[in-house]
Design a protein that fits this description.
mainly beta; Methylamine Dehydrogenase, Chain H; four-stranded antiparallel sheet; 4 helices
Length: 615
Amino acid sequence: MSKVVGFVLLLIGLLVGPGATRSAEANCVLTSAGGVKCWGSNLGDGTLNTSATPVDVPGLTSGVIQITEGSGGHTCVLTAAGGVKCWGFNQSGQLGNGTFTSVYPFIVPSPVDVVGLSSGVVQIAAGREHTCAMTAMGTVKCWGRNGNGELGTGTSGPSAPMPVDVTGLTDVAQVSAGWAFTCALSTSGGVKCWGWNDKGQLGDDSVTGSAPFFKTTPVDVVGLTSGVVQISSISGYTCALTSAGGVKCWGDNLVGQIGTRNSNPFYFDQPHDIPTLTSGVAQVSVSGLHNCVVTTSGGAKCWGQNLSGQVGDGTFQFAIACCSVDPPVDVIGLTSGVAQITTHGAPASSLSSSASISCALTTDGAVKCWGTNNLGQLGNGTTTPSPPGAIPTPVDVVGLSSGVAALWDQAPLQEPTDEFTICAGEGGFCGFTGTMDVRYGANGLFSFKTLTDGTACTNEVFGDPAPDTPKQCAIRTPSTSPPPPGDWVFCATEGGECAFSGTMNVRYGANDSFVVKTLADGTPCTNAVFGDPAPDTPKHCAIQPPSTPPPSGDWTFCTTEGGFCAFTGTMPVRYGANGLFVVKTLTDGTACTNEVFGDPAPDVAKSCSLPLTGP
């Protein structure tokens, strides 16, 4: 028996020890100040050094709202201005700066601008040797390697060192890049994929088993034309989070990472439910060998290969033929209080754990990681000798006990303003104890609810205040004082008739959860009219005369919705109502309409206003 154990430990040492291929991946987080901190390799600091603790990326200490990391060793960031910058490996033009780096070590060690993307981008995703960006118009642009059609242009072959348009996508809500393939989530909740398809990566019920082994334009994923709220792609597979809180995956299943172990064939070419995760999930992250989720109660669960303890249950699976944990297990110490989770790992075909780690962001802004640590990948300032070269339970990342807004490859976050504090990105879980005001949205377009003991940060809970835009949740302690007297006047209980003449703001709900609509000449006080802001609670209607001009002091009323706001020169123009506004800088007057500004306050009479003191 001792000989068997010795052989297994020797194998582990070969896979994760100093003799293994050195990981070229950074692990990066976004701070609440909009800065980027990284540890590991490829730090973006202009050197080829490594670090076992987080360091600042020069030039990116503020103004960043999202980070993505490619499985082949490059990193990109999205700035608050909508621009993209990248660094790291560039042998296939994956940095998008118009060049290829063809001389060893093939690395650009400092951030460079992506050509043509200084603005207009709302989300980014990095694959192995290609990168993609979703624009504010709902289109996708990709750059880098294209040997398997992963750029989605309808052709394959030469790499593109600057962005090119993906064919046929106009309504994208999220893009996710895997190993030589890419997937996109539409605003209607459908999923399309393109690129390499030898193991069902495209999910279209086909495996491209003979040349050319790929598809160069987006195809529908079977059974997922609607109902999906988040996708995560890596290596040879993708997992999707449904609106019901379930997880479905497709593609490579060599070590049981998307189904059950010892499946034959070792792939699924259409979505497959993950047992025990058909509900109750708020966010999913995949790594190539293992996967993790955040539950709606704020806990972390992981499953898949566990050679380096990357599932976080305190064990190592020292098995040669199958190294997996199945089904998902709780991560020790993280059964609550988790806001985000993300993962790194080698492709399943390698069966190597040289970079298999998981990290969680807690609701108080701290980061904890577990898994491979032979090169200091966990960021706790130590290295773990091989074997096992890993730590199978969460450890604190040095210097990141608070102040972190997002992990790599999570939804873009906006810096909080006023008294609100970011608690989760869209699709994550906003964890808190007691009762809090929760704000959901982006770019000045928000929904507000007063909720208790945490909430999923999703359209299903809040509605969609900022369509086609990655959103966030933020919290504040609710005011205990009643609303000012005279603001709202009771008019009917639920099911009754709220009678009035002319146009009024009508508030419907209970217990600080309300929907406000501007209506004329009375209304039934029912869910059919307003939706249900306070399920399982008796509700009521109250009325308030609508306010046309915005508050005095900063903005001056210009015109009501549908009118023309006349001015000379260039001015910021604010459009909306009830605290929900869009601001655009325009020249020589503008129509005050949804066509110009979008609709920041649906079903509410809006107005335009100009700065009181001018531009």
